[in-house]
Amino acid sequence: MARYNSSRPPGAAGPAVAAGIRHESRMDNIRIFGSRRSIEQVEEGHELAPRFDEHGLIPAVTTDHASGELLMVGYMNREALARTIETGEAHYFSRSRQVLWHKGATSGLVQKVRALLIDDDQDCVWLRVETAGGANCHVGYRSCFYREIPVGVAVGAASGPLPLTFTTTEKVFDPKEVYGDAPNPTQL
């Protein structure tokens, strides 16, 4: 059971994005992204002209549509953004696995996009979503942001790693029940 749903057949090699090789996909011929011609056009124009980084990715901040709670931060490539626009469901690009994934394809925790916004210089997108099942984190919590870092600490005086405080202690689901023995996406 794969944790993330790839758009390629099982066993197909992932795009060599980290190596700077452009990934050609069936979505590349869709003309939904304009070219970036001027600062004024990008900042004040009426044309979607996203700026993907040197790896072909754009950050995607995801919040709960109703509450505004920060749920997760991920990345999209051209295909993930195009599929999100086309389907109304969140798609991301996994940097650790180098695959496109449809959020919730395995777990059922699909993110329905209620609003999709882009920032002023079009290099970051904001998804406001409703999530089936109420959880968004592969660890089982509602949000991927379930621990707080202390602030106001004299960093030079710290004698070791800063302790994190759990802001959420109750999981929405048990990851073992949902994902079985699928590989964990967290990389060391």
Strand content: 15-25%
Rg estimate, integer Å: 18 Å
Q: By helix and strand content, what is the structural category? A: alpha+beta
Identify low-pLDDT runs. Answer: 1-24
The CATH top-level class label of the domain at 17-139: Alpha Beta
Q: Measure the end-to-end span.
A: 22 Å
Number of helices: 3
* Anisotropy-based shape: globular
Indicate the percent of residues in helices: 10-25%
CATH homologous superfamily label of the domain at 17-139: Phosphoribosyl-AMP cyclohydrolase
| Succession of helices and strands | HEEHEEEEEEH
Question: Average pLDDT value?
Answer: 82
Oligomer: single chain
Number of E-type strands: 8
Give me the side-by-side strand order of the main sheet: 2-1-6-5
Please specify the SSE layout and strand pairing:
Layout: H1 39-44, E1 58-64, E2 70-76, H2 78-87, E3 91-94, E4 99-102, E5 111-118, E6 125-131, E7 147-148, E8 165-166, H3 175-179
Parallel strand pairs: 1-6
Antiparallel strand pairs: 1-2, 3-4, 5-6, 7-8
Can you tell me about this structure?
The chain is of the alpha+beta class. It has a domain at 17-139: Ubiquitin-like (UB roll) (Roll), CATH 3.10.20. 11% of the residues lie in helices and 22% in strands. It is built from three helices and eight strands, in the order H-E-E-H-E-E-E-E-E-E-H. It has helices spanning 39-44, 78-87, 175-179; strands at residues 58-64, 70-76, 91-94, 99-102, 111-118, 125-131, 147-148, 165-166. The protein has a four-stranded mixed sheet with strand order 2-1-6-5. Strands 3-4 form a two-stranded antiparallel sheet. The longest helix has 10 residues, at 78-87. It is globular. It starts with 38 loop residues before the first helix and ends in a 9-residue tail after the last helix. The relative contact order is 0.18. Residues 1-24 have low confidence and may be disordered.
